[in-house]
Amino acid sequence: xxxxxxxxxxxxxxxxxxxxxxxxxxxxxxxxxxxxxxxxxxxxxxxxxxxxxxxxxxxxxxxxxxxxxxxxxxxxxxxxxxxxxxxxxxxxxxxxxxxxxxxxxxxxxxxxxxxxxxxxxxxxxxxxxxxxxxxxxxxxxxxxxxxxxxxxxxxxxxxxxxxxxxxxxxxxxxxxxxxxxxxxxxxxxxxxxxxxxxxxxxxxxxxxxxxxxxxxxxxxxxxxxxxxxxxxxxxxxxxxxxxxxxxxxxxxxxxxxxxxxxxxxxxxxxxxxxxxxxxxxxxxxxxxxxxxxxxxxxxxxxxxxxxxxxxxxxxxxxxxxxxxxxxxxxxxxxxxxxxxxxxxxxxxxxxxxxxxxxxxxxxxxxxxxxxxxxxxxxxxxxxxxxxxxxxxxxxxxxxxxxxxxxxxxxxxxxxxxxxxxxxxxxxxxxxxxxxxxxxxxxxxxxxxxxxxxxxxxxxxxxxxxxxxxxxxxxxxxxxxxxxxxxxxxxxxxxxxxxxxxxxxxxxxxxxxxxxxxxxxxxxxxxxxxxxxxxxxxxxxxxxxxxxxxxxxxxxxxxx
Length: 559
Known about the structure:
Oligomer: single chain
Strand content: under 5%
Number of helices: 24
Distance between the termini: 82 Å
Number of strands: 7
Radius of gyration: 26 Å
Largest sheet: 5 strands, mixed
Structural class: mainly alpha
Helix content: 55-70%
Number of domains: 3
C-alpha cells in the first residue's frame, strides 16, 4: 500500500503512466477494429461518397457530392496519391482520429477529475457501442468529434493558464467543422466558456488571432468549393435546410420522435453483440446490456448528488448573504422561465431558436450561481452546453440516425467520470489520503469496459452479404466489358459502384419514385448497364435484360 500511495500522490507520474496505458489500450483496440472493418468492407452509402471524393482530390476520379465536408477526403487523398488506394486507408485514418480523440478527452477530463476517474471517463467514450460501431468505418463522425474535443481542450488551457492556446483552439475548431459541418456547434461551448472566464484585453487579441488563423485554414477549401461546385460556402444551403427541418418522409432515417436520442441512450452506451452488421451500426435495433444500465445509473446518481450539493450550497449562501436573497430569487426565476420556454418549444420551432434559448439559459444559470464560488461551475456548464447544443439540433431534424449521437458521446462520458467523482465524495473509504472508493469504482469500471468490449468485438460479423455481392458484381462487369470505363452506367447505389469501378456511376433509385418516373429517369441518361443492389424485390426494367446475378446484385444490360 505504501507503493500505491506514493504512486497516487505523484500525480504527474500517475498521469503520464495512465496516458501511456490508455494509448496502448487504444492502439490495440483500434488495430482489431480496423482488422474487422477491413474484412467487412464498406456498406454505408455516405462512406462511398467520401472515398470517391478522395479519388477526385487525388486526381484519380470524378467524385460525388463535392459540397460535403472535405477534410477527411482531403487527408485520404494524400495517401491515395502515394499509391494506397484502398478502403483500409480510410479505415486507418479514421482509427488515428479515434485514438487522438480519446486521449484528448482524457486530458480534458483530467482538468476536472483525478487521473483514474478521467481514465474511466475517456475509456467509456471509446467503448460506447455507438462509437465502437463507427470509429474506424470511414464515417466523419468520430474524426469530427475528436477534433472538437481538442478544440475544447485548447480553449480550456487558454482560458485557465496560457492564452496562446487560442491560436490552436479556433483553428482546430475550424478543422472539426471542415470534417463534419455540424461539428461547428462546438463554437457555442467554446465561446460560453471563454465568456465565463472573463477574458482580458490581451486575451481578446489572441482570440481574434486564433479566429483569423481558423479563417485562413478555410481559404484553400473555399477555393476548392468554388472550382468544384461554384460556391464559396456550400454548407449554407445545408444549414438552411436543417434549420427549417425540410426533408422527405421517404428518407430512411425519417422520424418525428423528439425523444429518439434520449430513449436510445442505453443502446448507445452498451448493446448486445450481434453478427448482423445492421445491428452493429444501428444499435437502437439491439437490446442494451446490464453494463449499460449500470453506467447509466452511475451517471444519474452522480447528477443527483451534484444537484443536492448545489441546493445545499445555495441555501448556505442565502443564510450568510441574506441581503442578496431577492436578487438570487429573481435570477432563479429567470432560469426557470428560460428552462420552461426551452422545454415548451423543444423540437417545435427551429433548433436555431432553441439554441438561442439554451445559450440564454446557460448564461442565466452562470449568473445565478457564480457568487457561490463553485470551483468547476464553468466546466460543468461547458459539458451541459456541449450535450444540449447537439441534442437540440439533431432532435429537431426529422432525420434521426444513431451515429449522430456521437456528437453527444463525450458529454455522456463526462457524466461517467462525474458519477464516480460524486459517489466517492459521498461514500468515502480513505486510506492515508487515498479515496479508495474512487480508486475501486474507476478500476472496476475500466476492467468491465475492457472485458465487455472484447466480448462484443468477438461477435462482430466477418463479412456483409451485400458488400461481398457488390464487390464481386463490379469485378465481374469489369471482366465482362473491358471497355466499361467508356460506357454510361447507373445503379440504385451509384457511389458504391462508382468506387468499385473507379468511374462515375449515376444514381437512379426506383423505390423513391413511381415506375413511370423511374423509366423516364433511366431513359434520360440511357445507360448501357443498370446495376441493381436489392434483396426485397425484383426490378422490371423496360428495354433491359438481365445478364448476371451475383448474390443480392443483378446487372442489366440495354437491349
